[in-house]
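Blinded run. Sample ID left blank on purpose so nobody reads anything into the name before looking at the predicted structure. Input follows.
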Amino acid sequence: MESPHIQETICHLDILQEWLTTHTSIMERWESKKYFGFSAMMQSTHYSTTLAKILSISMPIQGSETTGLFSCTGLQKLDNLVNRVKSQALEFLNQVLRYIFEKVTSKVKVTSPFLPRCIQFCPYLIKSLLSVAARPDIETIIQEEVYSEIIVEAIETVVLFAGEPEFQDELIKTFRPLIVGVGLNLMRTSKSEMTEMLEDPDAFVNLALDTCDKQKSRVIKTQGARLVETLCDNVDGAVSFLTLFSCQSIALAFDPQSGAIASISAVQENFYPGEYF
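Blinded prediction complete.
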């Protein structure tokens, strides 16, 4: 039986979800009309503040793990609703950011109240991604649609940040754990993909091709690849690090004398500081 407090929280979250659904739909219509209304939205202190508050919602349930942006309390109904609300909030934010970063000049960009909010949000977002990707049950979590959707949107936000100079200081500090702990970790072949390889090889091959090429499929695996690619394109030292990590991982994973293959965790612990995992 849910407590009155949790029932009240769920009621409030339902209202937030309706508000976000309505506004996301409006933004999509504006986007189809050559970004009608986006110039006013990007200058709205009200909306930038509201989205920041929604994305900072936390559920302090005793005994539950804290993963920042992502709700993992163990109360499925509550977690699903919180994550769905935040996923929609990130989708809304990403629509605004694409306009700010791609459609207006740098002089106009710096006048938007969304920019300082996002600069504050960036470390929290990255820490949350690293935290959820390091969970031992991450492979199980990402099979659930709600978690998959919010992680995809969160990675999309980091990808948008990566192309802008205002976020470079934070990304220079965190690109190594982002590449290994999030990008490569989420690109691993899952058990469901192994089953698909046997039962539907065409779909398996199409996903593999998309992962290596355009990343048009908005799924965990392709977004992990997109994150790695974007960091390599935009952050100094990322390509060198990824090359070194890949070469040394292969050397550590495979012992040519015994033919033994080490586990991924063993490779990470030997090559990369444990504090990142």
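Unblinding after everyone has recorded impressions. The chain is about 70% helix and 0% strand.
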